[in-house]
C-alpha cells in the first residue's frame, strides 16, 4: 500500500490554528489533501492529528482520520519521523502492509500533484530511502554574514570573499512540502537529509515557508499571483 500522511497537530503557537486557518478561501490543510488525492499516488490519505476540530475539517475535505495522535507525539519537540512511523505502525497493527509513505505538510499550499508523482518516480528509480522537495537558495550561501555580539559583521566563509558569485557552488534547502520514503526507512528512523535520499527540485517561485504572519501574507500574495498567471 502507498500511504499519504499529513501531520497536523493543534498546538501551533506562532500562527494559532494555522493548519485549518482560511488560506485564499479554503482551510490551509485542504490544499494538501487535494494535491494528494489528485496525484492518484495513494491508496489512503490520512491526517495525523491530536485535535478534534482539525480532524473534522480534514474529514470534510476528503482525508481519513482513523486515529487520534497520542499526546507524547504532539508537543513542540517531536520531529516528523516519529509521527510518520506511528501512523505506519498503527496501520500494520490493523493488518495493512505499507510499502511507500509520503509525508505531506499541512501548511504546503503550493504542493502539486505532479510533484508528488515525480517524487515517487525518483524514489523508485534510485531505489532510495527518501525523495523530498528542495529548492535553491536565491543568494550564494558562501557569502552569508553573521552579526556579532558587538554589532559588527563577519562572513561565515571569509575565504570566499574574492570568489565570483558565478563560481560558487549552488546550494539547496528543504522546501518543506513533502517527503516520500520507504516504510522501512521511516520505521528505522533513518535521517532524511543524508544517505540514500534524492532531491525533487522545485522552482523558488513555488516555495514559501509559513512560520510567521509575514510569511502567511507573502504566501497568499504568491498563491493569488500564480493562480492568476495559470
Automatic annotation (TrEMBL):
SUPFAM superfamilies per UniProt: Nucleotide-diphospho-sugar transferases
Keywords: Nucleotidyltransferase, Transferase
Coiled-coil residue spans: none
Record-level Gene Ontology MF annotations: N-acylneuraminate cytidylyltransferase activity
InterPro entries, A to Z: CMP-NeuNAc_synthase, Cytidylyl_trans, Nucleotide-diphossugar_trans, PseF
PANTHER family hit by this protein: HAD SUPERFAMILY MEMBERS CMAS AND KDSC, N-ACYLNEURAMINATE CYTIDYLYLTRANSFERASE-RELATED
Protein name (Swiss-Prot/TrEMBL): Pseudaminic acid cytidylyltransferase
UniProt organism field: Crenobacter luteus
Amino acid at each position: 500500500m502507498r500511504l499519504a500522511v499529513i501531520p497536523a497537530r493543534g498546538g501551533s503557537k506562532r500562527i494559532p490554528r494555522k493548519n485549518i486557518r482560511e488560506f485564499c478561501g479554503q482551510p490551509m490543510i485542504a490544499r494538501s489533501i487535494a494535491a494528494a488525492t489528485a496525484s492518484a499516488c495513494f491508496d489512503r490519505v490520512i491526517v495525523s492529528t491530536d485535535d478534534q476540530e482539525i480532524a473534522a475539517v480534514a474529514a470534510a475535505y476528503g482525508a481519513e482520520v482513523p486515529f487520534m495522535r497520542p499526546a507524547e507525539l504532539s508537543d513542540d519537540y517531536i520531529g516528523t519521523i516519529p509521527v510518520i512511523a506511528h501512523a505506519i505502525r498503527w496501520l500494520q497493527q490493523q493488518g495493512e502492509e505499507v510499502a511507500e509513505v509520503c509525508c505531506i505538510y499541512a501548511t504546503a499550499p503550493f504542493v502539486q500533484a505532479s510533484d508528488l508523482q515525480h517524487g515517487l518516480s525518483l524514489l523508485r528509480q534510485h531505489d532510495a530511502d527518501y525523495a523530498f522537495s528542495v529548492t535553491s537558495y536565491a543568494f550564494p550561501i558562501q557569502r552569508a554574514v553573521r552579526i556579532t555580539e558587538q554589532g559588527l559583521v563577519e562572513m561565515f566563509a571569509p575565504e570566499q570573499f574574492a570568489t565570483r558569485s558565478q563560481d560558487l557552488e549552488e546550494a539547496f534547502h528543504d522546501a518543506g512540502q513533502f517527503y516520500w520514503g520507504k516504510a522501512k526507512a521511516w520505521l528505522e528512523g533513518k535521517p532524511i537529509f543524508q544517505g540514500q535520499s534524492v532531491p525533487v527540485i522545485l522552482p523558488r517561485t513555488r516555495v514559501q515557508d509559513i512560520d510567521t504572519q509575514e510569511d502567511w501574507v507573502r504566501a497568499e500574495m504568491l498563491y493569488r499571483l500564480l493562480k492568476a498567471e495559470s
